[in-house]
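Appendix B. One record, verbatim.
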Amino acid sequence: MVRKRKRRIGRVGLGLAAAALGFCLISCPRPPPHPPATPAAGDLAQRRLDAALGGLFAQSGAAGMVIAVVEGDRTTIRGYGRIGPNDARVPDGATLVRLQSLSKLLAAQLLAKLAIEGRVALTDPLQRYAPPGGRTPQGKRSPPITLIDLATHTSGLPRVAAIRADQPLPKAFQARWAWLSRQRRLPAPGTQAVYSNVGFDFLGDALAEAGHGPYGEGLLREITAPLGMKDTTAAPTPEACARLMAGDAARRPWPCFDRSGDAASGGLYSTADDIARWMKHELAPGAAADERRISQAIYVDRSALKRAEGLDHAGPAAGVGLAWILLDATPTHPRLIEKTGGGDGFLTYVVLDPARHVGLFFAINNVSGHRLPPLAASANDLVGGLGAAR
């Protein structure tokens, strides 16, 4: 009997406890809910950047795209789409791309480095580096073509020479110097800026002569190897070629081959990883400041020229440096330096805000429909916004 009463009392106690708990769930004060987690400022900024980079890819209309962004010590590399029509891999920092005319920036950097070391002078005449029997055109009243004329597109040379650009180096070298020796009526150097690929080919020849070896070897020794740019070359290995993003499917396919013949003007291959390393070098405070003072300076004011042609692909050019094009500040971005590239199924672009240590590079495989000007404008605004947020 006692056991039953205890059992009954136990059941009553449990029932009262449950009732009290139920009442409290309904009417007792509740502790305040935990506030929602707030993303860290860095995470939020990264999400915004990723959204903006995805927007660039959508704007490009390309099948594949790689992008590298440098903000001080921070690097972001993204790939979109696929490497090729029959290759579903997403491009990444190790995907090989054709730099096209961004190659000129590396030639200009090599020029600046050799000038710092006293091995060349920007005002050296091209004739000083001509091969035996080579001759540069010079009228009785016309000054000689100098290295800085070549690097600022003010040499008076045309965009291209009437020779094959995809020849091996010895043949390309011989053909362009033979072509130059035949020229008689070229504009005087320094009076106009006309975008010239052949001018940078001759600059590469002069740098090779000054460095006592092929241009590619000098570039490797002085620039790309010290910066760890292992895939930046005019002569990629078969392994690197296997990582090459396909060019525009609407254009003829270009094989992955040795482009040493025009390495200084447009023949380099590279990756987003390599270009990110290079941009960090170009944007870093302190180290190599003397070199950048020469390589990033603006030497030609557009307003002083009689004519300017082929310089406005990324916006109105205000001036010309050693391959770099100056863009004046606008309401959406500060003063910037930039360089465009295009051909062989690729469009490429790099833009730097040196004052705020921000840069962006992209390569796409869509060369149709005048995509580069609006894409460059979007990239310029993005870089301006990143710089303002620092």
